[in-house]
Amino acid sequence: MKLEDIVCNIEYAKKLKELGVSQESLFYWVLHTRKGSVWTLMEKPRKFNEWSYVSAFTCTELWGILPKNNIKIQLTLDGYRGEYNAKNGCAVTRKKGSNAMAKLLQYILENELLVNNN
């Protein structure tokens, strides 16, 4: 299994950073400007100040951020289905569990259903 298979994609990672999610994770999407502005995955770089970066969250890391009530994640024939059942519920299906969980967290934060304390 490749690292790309277990972390959320760059689009979700950038959105979660924009929404104020703490940037502490095992892996990071790092923008290498010397390589023609290419985003690559790596473990925590030694010198963050030289590169742009965003956390590449795993399912376990995202589960630690998501609220513990009203969340359901299940594997279906179409991929991973994530549901958040509050007043204004949300259901998403994505091929990767980390993307389904990242999308749920994005929805929760954008709709101010959870206070993000970093």
What keywords describe this structure?
118 residues, alpha+beta, three-stranded antiparallel sheet, 6 strands, globular
Q: What's the number of domains?
A: 1
Name the average pLDDT: 86
Q: Tell the overall outline.
A: globular
Q: Please trace the helix and strand order, writing H or E for each element.
A: HEEEHEEEH
Strand order of the largest sheet: 2-1-3
The stretches of 5 or more residues where confidence is low (pLDDT under 50) are none
Q: Figure out the total of helices.
A: 3
Strand content: 25-35%
Radius of gyration: 15 Å
User: How far apart are the first and last residues' alpha carbons, in Å?
Assistant: 30 Å
Structural class determined from secondary elements:
alpha+beta
Q: Quaternary status of these chains?
A: single chain
Number of strands: 6
Biggest beta sheet attributes: 3 strands, antiparallel
